[in-house]
Amino acid sequence: MENTIGKILESVMADTLSYLTEKYELLPAQHYGGRPGRTAEDAMMILSENIHEAWKIGEIYSAVFMDVAGAFNNVHHERLIHNMRKRRMPTIVTNWMESFLEGRTTQLRFNDTTSVSIPTAAGIPQGSPLSPTLYMYYNGDILTIPRGQDLSLGFIDDIMFGVCGLTDTGNAERLGNMLKEAEEWRNKHGVQFEKSKYVLVHFTRNKRRGTQAPITMPDITIQPSSEARYLGVIFDQDLKFKSHLQYVVKKGTKFAMAMSNVAKATWGAQFKHIRQLFITVVATRTDYAASIWHRPKDYRRSQTTTQTTKLAGVQRLAMKAILGCFKTTSTRAMEIETELQPPHIRLETKVLRTMTRIQTLPQAHPLTGWFTKAINNRMKPTTFLSNLENLTIQYTNYATANVEKIYPFIRPPWWIPPIQVRIEPTKEKAKDLHDSIIATHTNETQSMHIYTDGSGINGHVGAAAYSPTTSDTQQQYLGPETTHNVFAGELTAIKLATDMVGRNKERYTYIVIYIDSQAAIKAVIKPGKQSGQRIICEILDSIENLQLQNPDITFLLVWIPGHEDILGNETADVAAKEAAEKQQTTGEPPRRTTLKSGQNTALYKESKAKWMHERQTDKRNAKYLQSLISRPCGEAGAKLYAKLTSRRKLTWLSRLRTWHTGLNNYLHQFGHIDDPNCSCGNGEETVKYYLLICPNYERERDKLRKETGIQGMRIESLLGDPNIIPSTLDYVGETGRLNFK
After folding, report:
1. Which residue of 88, 142, 195, 297 is most buried, as measured by CB atoms within 10 A?
2. Residue 595 CB neighbours (<10 A)
3. How far, in Å, CA of 691 to CA of 728, rounded?
């Protein structure tokens, strides 16, 4: 129990420490990792942008990458507390940290023998939610060593110094001076650097520039390298990422091959599980930090095409394992059947989602300035386009959108919601609660009841609030669903309700707001780093201002089920739909900002439409399958295969639908046998002949005909209709023609 309480306290203090750090900017802006809204990809993007900026003015960019040995174990407690106080951390927090760290001991256990307690005078606990933030306070000063235009980047214990100049020799000398200062910092803090792991890279694409200058220090000489692995991505001298691509393909191939070990033709994981394995493991690992090494639509660079081609090979291996089909099956057919987009679309979407996240970053984030600069420079001709500049040029409509800003916190962790909430576990109980509140408070002159709703219809989103108490209705049109969603509509409706209270001349003291979205209620009482944050902040500000004006006022948010014949809810629903359809707003028009979730939805729809267009215009591959699924009853994709629990039947189906199966016509086509004809001697053994004509299986076919009916005995129904496919697979099993050896 003591350990459990201790972990809870650590989590509470970790949230407090994080809030104070971000609210008052207590850490260097270039410190990443362990901080909300700051990722490894951000740090790498900063490095990439600095390198391209140096190249634009004809300079070499040189960087040295450092690693700390046993980082958490060598934290000196007194120095840590000193650093925290120096960075203006409140005394009450530093005193708590001091108490948390004192009196720590370690015990060693070998087999059944446990050592005595050994006092631990240094170190912060591994696995504690506090440790990453504490360590950033411990090593924060090292990031202040580079001055002026020189760069430092920190990701917990990974440190990088970068400089630009006309020569590699001059850059190496400046980096050497920084490392000398880093040595002084190390001596004060008792930190151990893994000097053998120092990596120096001179980044340039100018073959005439020297890149051989080392960094010479009293105890070590750091020879330059042609590449460095930083935060999981291999940066080479010319930023073409050839080594990283090789690494990614090798890793992806390894995992794709491992998938084939758990999904054989006759046994193994079900379709939905093996497909999910590819999405969550293989694709996630290969696509990591794609915005750094992949540049969509930049066809001037041959590596863009090379990257997608090689990753398509990895995905092909995985799809073959998912479906159990033959290696001769076309990639397009497997993409259709697995419902996995080709890598060039998948990577493009991932990179654009990263750009959308960058657009939401607050002004204090270092990347915000770089993105603004890229937008401003997009119309100016330039060489050495950076990744962000490429995105702003290729995707101007997305890059220039007025996307919402999302902050790490809008309320401190110790904030207590100024509202009461009732969410019943079932629809029936929720409706009973609603009826009870109405019966109890309707006739009270100090009570005000408001129903809210958000609605999406015909590609547009609207919100409305209706009060039977005052017979008032407020509406607001938010925009198309490519910029907003229904969740934002639900939040906006709550804001309309609070505005309604503020405008009313009556001093109501008991405000009941009925909401049919549990997600919206939970977002209001526990605001986080999420899309729609600005609306949540406006709701809370409105409620808190009303309570300042009238301390007796009470707000109650009640969840009610939608479309359950609750008159007020139905009225609000009609008004919200009207606001969306007619694009009308009561009162002043709202500020127009694109939600992060809205832009991501637009990206998803665009990628889906692009993939569908590619499929429909591809007349060379998967022709039979394309014809099959184009019929009214034809179906393809994950939903079709997810219904099959037998790997054997799944394999039969995928091979029959793609026309690549163990029938004589196929075997002859690829040179495995000499005769394409069926053993019955009446014609070529194609899929259609096997299912509908061959006299060898007339008895099995009679049974199939009885189950499907005459209309079902068509190839598009037998292999495309989800209701008939089980009977078709039973037929295949009974004939034994496609049994596995």
Report:
1. 142
2. 28
3. 8
